[in-house]
Design goal:
about 450 residues, alpha/beta, Nuclear Transport Factor 2, Chain: A, 12-stranded mixed β-sheet, two-stranded antiparallel ribbon, 14 strands
């Protein structure tokens, strides 16, 4: 495919004297013969891919997209005018991996100016005489299309997200448990594009929250963890009725959890989305997925069961909402299974490292305490906006491993990141007490699990 006649390169690269480079001196050679002339590093590749978007060169974009996340085809939004590129940061992680953060601005056909801020991941592959960099995935930052128009930077003034894998490993190691838990990890991720407009799509809700059981003791947000209220089999309940669902998970952030179930169970928000025409319809049922540390059980028992129920309900897409650390893994595995079987998904969660380590098609990350992935407590506006972002991501993502960062900021205690599984706040006696309590919880949960699955030969 021929390039349009250009003088200056669209990527805006400058020479040593501060003058814009000509297209022929910058991205031109890459786009003219990308097999013979490949980008020297990830930053050069990112710039050339921006230029390819300006020139609508789908062939180049697909050729430089890593096979593990590459879509089958690529289309361009009509009437878009690209306005400029700004590279914010370039980080070479090692000889084969790099990260580029950039801002790209463009104007839609209707005149709306949009600011796209993304942190992109790149990988270098050497095969024979070929030595090439490839685009793998991008994490949209606040200010991306569908999030906000072109304004000043909107990145929340917050600290880095909690590294939940590292934090949970350190916690259980301090309690005296060896053999740290291995969270699920995959090198490739399935991806199922929406087959029609979201406004015509039947969407289901998948949760790890438990239906309230009056005979199981205290289950409100301020109650201590109650293992007897856990469930171990997939369940379904009608979307037309109101439901009392609770978060019965051992490592959810109870110190910053409220009794507003809308923060982890967005069924009311999904009904409002139907009324607004954002989605076509809800399935007759939502589905509850148990939190299993056993990845084999989740993959072999729970995932097929959820898929069967979704298909029976006519689900064409699914919104999944995770709570505790292992919840994020369980629902990541479910999302992967649904996508591999033709149902598009978006996962709403707060444990970014666990989800991205596993690999999901679409992830809306909210940097809030666990148990609040569907919006801020008692804040309907933030809950509706959070769901709207998830729905936007569901229909706009073009490849697997697409993460969108929710710009909401936690309004509660600012030290919530430090509070979560904080070993520095515990002395030897308290650690011993935590160990004893954890052993008691494990024994109770095992008893409930054995009773629940006693008739299941695959347990």
């Amino acid at each position: 495919m021929a390039n349009k006649e250009l003088i200056h390169c669209p990527c805006g690269q400058l020479d040593a004297a501060g003058r814009r480079l000509d297209f022929a001196q910058c991205c031109g050679p890459y786009l003219t013969d990308f097999l013979a002339c490949s980008a020297a590093d990830a930053q050069a590749l990112m710039r050339s891919r921006y230029t390819a978007f300006v020139l609508e060169r789908a062939d180049y974009l697909l050729a430089t997209w890593h096979a593990s996340t590459r879509p089958a085809e690529l289309s361009f939004e009509p009437g878009v005018k690209w306005l400029g590129l700004e590279v914010r940061a370039y980080r070479k992680i090692d000889e084969a991996h790099a990260q580029v953060e950039f801002i790209a601005r463009y104007r839609e056909a209707g005149g709306r100016a949009v600011r796209l801020q993304e942190s992109s991941q790149f990988v270098r592959e050497i095969s024979g005489h070929a030595n090439r960099w490839f685009y793998v995935s991008g994490e949209a930052q606040p200010g991306a299309k569908g999030n906000a128009p072109d304004t000043a930077d909107q990145t929340p003034a917050q600290g880095p997200p909690i590294a939940y894998i590292e934090r949970t490993h350190a916690w259980y190691d301090a309690l005296g448990y060896g053999n740290p838990y291995q969270y699920a990890h995959y090198s490739t991720t399935p991806f199922q594009p929406l087959t029609q407009a979201l406004s015509k799509t039947c969407v289901t809700l998948i949760t790890t929250a438990a239906l309230y059981q009056a005979d199981k003791g205290p289950q409100d947000a301020s109650a201590p963890y109650n293992a007897s209220a856990k469930f171990f089999k997939v369940y379904s309940a009608g979307t037309c009725a109101e439901h009392d669902v609770r978060v019965s998970h051992v490592a959810v952030d109870r110190a910053h959890l409220s009794n507003d179930s809308n923060t982890w169970f967005p069924l009311p928000a999904m009904h409002r989305a139907v009324q607004l025409g954002l989605i076509g319809a809800l399935t007759p049922n939502f589905h509850g997925v148990p939190t299993n540390r056993s990845q084999r059980h989740t993959l072999e028992v729970d995932c097929p069961e959820v898929l069967q129920r979704c298909l029976a309900d006519g689900a064409q897409a699914a919104v999944l909402v995770a709570n505790c650390p292992v919840c994020h893994q369980s629902l990541s595995l479910v999302a992967r299974h649904l996508e591999a079987n033709g149902i598009a998904t978006v996962l709403m969660g707060a444990a970014k490292d666990i989800v991205q380590w596993c690999g999901v098609p679409r992830f809306l990350f909210s940097d809030v305490p666990l148990g609040n992935a569907a919006g801020l407590p008692y804040d309907t506006d933030s809950q509706d906006k959070t769901l709207a972002l998830a729905l936007e991501l569901l229909q706009s993502a073009q490849a697997a491993n697409t993460t969108l960062v929710n710009p909401i900021q936690w309004k509660g205690a600012p030290q919530w990141r430090q509070d979560y599984l904080n070993l520095q706040a515990l002395g030897p006696d308290e650690i011993a007490k935590q160990r004893a309590e954890n052993d008691r919880i494990k024994a109770l949960a095992q008893s409930v699990r054995d009773s629940s699955l006693s008739a299941d030969p695959t347990k």
